[in-house]
Amino acid sequence: MANRIRVSVKAYILTLYPQSGGSARSGGAVQGQNLRALAIGLAVPSFWSRAEISQAFDEANRIWIREADIEFTPVEISERDEVVPADENGMWIHFVNHLSPGARAVGVGFVYDLPSNEGGWGGGHVAVLSGNKARSGLSGFAGNLLAHELGHVLTDDPNHILAGGDASNLMHGSRNPRVANAGILNQQQISIARTRALNL
Ligand SMILES: [Zn+2]
Q1: How far apart are CA 89 and CA 6, in angstroms?
Q2: CA of 128 relative to ligand 1 center, distance in Å
Q3: What local confidence, expressed as pLDDT, does residue 128 receive?
Q4: Measured in whole angstroms, how far is the alpha carbon of residue 170 from the centre of its chain?
Q5: How much distance in Å is there from the Cα of 177 to the middle of ligand 1?
Q6: Residues 161, 72, 85, 158, Cα dihedral to 10°
Q7: Which of 8, 36, 150, 189 could be a cystine partner for 185, CB 3.0 to 4.6 Å?
Q8: Poorest-confidence range of 10-14, 27-31, 186-190?
């Protein structure tokens, strides 16, 4: 294939603390889901180990190198605390504003749980992964989920349109943790991802 493109990663073992003020309970209609522990004022430790994170990147890189000759490296892992809102939208906006590492890199947060059905989020220069969901799946599921969320960063396709409903596509919207996803990318996704990886 073409030349290998490398994208560096700042990975964070992320402990979440609840934002005081309880905006989620201020009476207005809150859209999306809440992370219950945070909503009632509890901190949420990450529980991800460095070894688990390295393993997830090994699997995500296996997929991205095979499909698009893109490699996420080097991966620098550190621990970090963030004070976040409990609701889906507020938390995602906080992550985008605080975990973006700047040009030519992606920030990836590894948390225990998220108010997300997918088990992760990706977009802009940021991805976040729920360990709770990742561990519920087959061996390799965490890496496959990580590859998917990094795919949201590289294809800028939040609604899984480019996957065209193909269940074997890495970016297919609905995934069962107990059914292996083949992690395929189509030509359009590869071309978009390679262009964006060069221009992050
Ligand atoms: Zn997705």
Answers
A1: 30
A2: 11
A3: 97
A4: 13
A5: 13
A6: -10
A7: 189
A8: 27-31
**Can you tell me whether residue 127 is helix, strand or coil?**
strand
What spacing in Å lies between the alpha carbon of 161 and ligand 1's midpoint? 10
Is the pLDDT at 31 greater than 50, yes or no? yes
pLDDT higher than 50, residue 171: yes
Q: What is the DSSP letter of 34?
A: B
Q: Where is 10: in which H helix or E strand?
A: strand 5-18
Q: Which of the four pLDDT bands, split at 50, 70 and 90, describes residue 12?
A: very high
Amino acid at 46: S
Task: Determine the distance separating the centroid of ligand 1 and the alpha carbon of 148, expressed in angstroms.
Answer: 6
- CATH fold group of domain 5-159+187-198: Collagenase (Catalytic Domain) (3.40.390)
Between the CA of 174 and the centroid of ligand 1 the distance, in Å, is 8
Q: Are strands 126-130 and 120-123 parallel, antiparallel or unpaired?
A: antiparallel
What is this structure's pTM?
0.93
Number of helices (H) and strands (E) in the chain: give both, helices first: 6, 5
Mean pLDDT of 24-46: 77
